[in-house]
Give the backbone structure.
Amino acid sequence: MLHLGCGLDTRIFRVDPPQGVEWFDVDYPEVIELRRKLYPSRDHYHRVASSVTEPDWPAEVPGNRRPWWWRKG
């Protein structure tokens, strides 16, 4: 699951995805740093500190699986 522009959304904890789902929250570095302070880490949960307009962030997401995308307005 790719959650683009995640902000302080807590969807990862509310949805509680099953085993086998790798979850990637992507947002600006300042936002990801705040998420690290506020929210616990968990298995299969990854934080990507980058603007989605930067060309390098997809390298942090494994390319061997078909992703689901989530973004909101």
